[in-house]
Amino acid sequence: MRIQNEAGFYLSVELQGRVDIAPDYPGYEHFHPFWELVWAEAPVCISCAGSTAVTGAAILPAGVHHRVSGAGRACRMLYLGFRFACGEPPQQLLEVPEDPLFADACSRLLQLPQEEFFAMQSDVLMLLSRLLRVLPAAGTELSHRAALTEKVRRLCAPKHNYSVQQMAGMLYVSPNYLSDVFRSETGMRIKEYQTLMRMEEALHLLVSTDLPVAAVAQRLGYSNPSYFIRCFEQYYHRTPGAVRQAGAEEE
């Protein structure tokens, strides 16, 4: 199912369903490759991107880890997964529009018998049309990709030695999503960029300091100096010693 507005933005449904939330339901951390609307009869606890809110409705960004758990009251929750045509999601919860028609549609979908739930397309279409009113501004926030890429660049500084999985955990996104965004923005894999940063810093240290090669390797996160030398030679086609000697001769 898909709906489009005058500006050309569209939403397409990927998933819809209902679930009963017990007062002490612990939930589990997960993410989706699509956006998700959650709407509950009573407030639930939603953790997303390192922050937690007790609310009855929220829009969860694509690719960001989140958890929905009970908040002391039993309730039924509607969830609607959808893709948005423009831009990339921010990394925080988005507000659900305060709209009586929106709330009525969510409430009707929760009350329908199971056999009618997936057939009630008019209410789902109405929800999509209401979401289109609030999402284009967020969807055009293309700076999200650039901001995420810049965070990865900083985490790739030679003083760090983070894996892609560690970076993704620190930025509250999945490793695959983080890798895809970084590669689309830079044309490089994260590992390739880490190597570039390390090799540039290694070159600087070799020609501007008297640090032994083993110390340079250690400073850059290489526990094995021989492995560092091999990586350096593969990158520059010269050994660290030859580069240092050439630098000394130029002086």
Q: Helix count? A: 10
Fraction in beta strands: 15-25%
CATH superfamily membership of the largest domain: Jelly Rolls
The first-level CATH class of the largest domain is given as Mainly Beta
The residue ranges in which pLDDT falls below 50 over 5 or more consecutive positions are 5-9, 136-142
Instruction: Summarize the amount of helix as a percent range.
Output: 40-55%
Number of domains: 2
Shape: elongated
How far the N terminus sits from the C terminus, by CA atoms, comes to: 69 Å
Order of helices and strands: EEEEEEHHHHHHHHHH
CATH architectural arrangement of the largest domain: Sandwich
SS-based class = alpha+beta
CATH fold annotation of the largest domain = Jelly Rolls
Major sheet: 6 strands, antiparallel
Radius of gyration: 25 Å
Number of strands: 6
Mean pLDDT value: 78
Write a structural description.
This protein is an alpha+beta fold. It folds into 2 domains: 138 residues, Jelly Rolls (Sandwich), CATH 2.60.120; 107 residues, Homeodomain-like (Arc Repressor Mutant, subunit A), CATH 1.10.10. Helices cover 47% and strands 21% of the residues. It contains 10 helices and 6 strands; from the N terminus they run E-E-E-E-E-E-H-H-H-H-H-H-H-H-H-H. Strands 1, 2, 3, 4, 5 and 6 form a 6-stranded antiparallel beta sheet that branches. Helix 1 crosses helix 3 and helix 8 crosses helix 9. It is elongated, with a radius of gyration of 25 Å. 28% of the residues are buried. About 5% of the residues have low confidence.
